[in-house]
Task: structure prediction
Amino acid sequence: MPQLEPLMELRPITALSASRKFDSDREIKLISSLIHKKMSESGANGVVVGISGGIDSAVVASLCKKALGAKRVLGVFLFEENSRKSQDMVDAKLLAKCLGIKTLDIPISNAIDAIAGLLGKRASRLTFANIKARTRMVILYALANQRNLLVAGTGDRSESLIGYFTKYGDGGVDFLPIGHLYKTEVRALGAVLQVPFNIITKPSSPNLWPNHKASDELPADYDILDRVLTLIFDSKMRREEIRSRTGVSDELIDKVIKLNRASEHKRQLPSSI
Result:
């Protein structure tokens, strides 16, 4: 098995708030326990993970391999034809090779085009992007059904709290190993797990359209966003104190709160009487 590339030194993560301490060893043990619990409860043979070349899927795949062993983890590359030579694809394959896990490479362009074609010219960029995310989900669950696996989700707390995921797309999973961690914590955990440095430091992207970067859609970079999120939702601070501690504007704080409220339906089961 190839060796992971040497990591450059990363700055140690500082606590996002006084009420939130990050201990990488403790997190790895807790997440490993969660994975084993899910395997025991379901009787599954292992897990399937969509590997995108980004930090979230890299950390989830690494944690699953650490908990279950390489033979019980299936990594799947779900790229379109126009991104099959991208850096993300290169990084995804490198990660899987370093972990020694089994992989499948399933091009998704034809499936996406077939679904989008049913809508004709009515498919907006956002609609088309959500079709991509849901196509990936369908394929992962088909593989899970075939092989008695669980779908390990790659969403983190930063994106969950502001609804930055596709409902029944990347949000459609069996469990979320890093769903309680903020993006900055996920990156720090990636360093401990020896995820390749390029993956840890690259800009986050859902890969839903060419040159798609999360920073183009988020209210702030993750270093700032995570600080604001933890002060709002973990420390329950008032706007004035958040502004004093972070130096961010009321407008940004209000936008984060608005995104959280507007996306509440994504985090809940469908309502009924």
Summary: The chain has eleven helices and four strands. The chain has two domains: 24-212, 219-268. Residues 1-15 have pLDDT under 50 and may be disordered. Residues 24-212 form a domain with the Rossmann fold fold (CATH 3.40.50.620).
